[in-house]
Amino acid sequence: MPDILACNSEDPDIHFKYIEAAARTGQIKEVERVTRESNFYDAEKTKNFLMEAKLPDARPLINVCDRFGFVPDLTHYLYTNNMLRYIEGYVQKVRTFLNEVLFGCHCSQHVET
After folding, report:
1. Where are the domains of the chain?
2. Contact present, 10 and 37 (Cβ < 8 Å)
3. How many CA atoms are closer than 13 Å to the CA of 86, on its beta-carbon side?
4. Could you tell me if 77 and 51 are in contact, meaning their C-beta atoms sit under 8 angstroms apart?
5. Using an 8 Å Cβ cutoff, are 73 and 55 in contact?
6. pLDDT category of residue 106 using cuts at 50, 70 and 90
7. Residue 38 in contact with residue 15, Cβ under 8 Å?
8. pLDDT tens for each residue of 21-76
9. Shortest CA distance to 15 belongs to which of 5, 29, 2?
10. CA–CA separation, 91 vs 26, rounded Å?
11. Whose CA is closest to 65, among 51, 80, 83?
């Protein structure tokens, strides 16, 4: 499968068709990579496709929902499909990020005073 990101296409339909083809042929790592790295797919359309596809790995859906603000949809989907380990992993990732931000703010306040 050619690399969609190397093609320099900015057409959302082409990016979506690539994601769709990769998912249907079982290339989940490629779907995960493109949903993480591409800025040119229709997020709503891709989210809906991934939810309907019910992939065994939720990371592509997590990428889309986290990047484009569909977190309530994501958590509802993961919960209703008994994919609790993905919810746990997502919360730990967010918590780690927030801890780093808060720690950085705390340290910068002590440096400035």
Report:
1. 12-112
2. no
3. 22
4. yes
5. no
6. very low
7. yes
8. 999 999 999 999 999 999 999 999 999 999 999 999 999 999 999 999 998 999 99
9. 5
10. 27
11. 51
Over its C-alpha atoms, the chain yields an Rg (Å, rounded) of 17
The count of residues in the chain is 113
Q: Report the amino acid identity of residue 62.
A: I
Residue closest to 23 by CA, chosen among 6, 46, 3: 46
| Residue 34 token pair | 């493109």
Angle between helices 43-53 and 59-68 (to 10 degrees): 150
Q: What is the mean pLDDT of the chain?
A: 85
The pTM (predicted TM-score) of the whole model is: 0.80
**pLDDT at residue 1 above 80?**
no
**Two structure tokens written together for 33:** 């990579």
Is residue 16 a contact partner of residue 43, using CB atoms and an 8 Å limit? Answer: no
Distance CA 65, CA 72 (A): 9
Place of tokens 């990371």: 59
The amino acid present at 99, given as its one-letter code, is N
Q: Please, are residues 76 and 66 in contact by the beta-carbon 8 Å criterion?
A: no
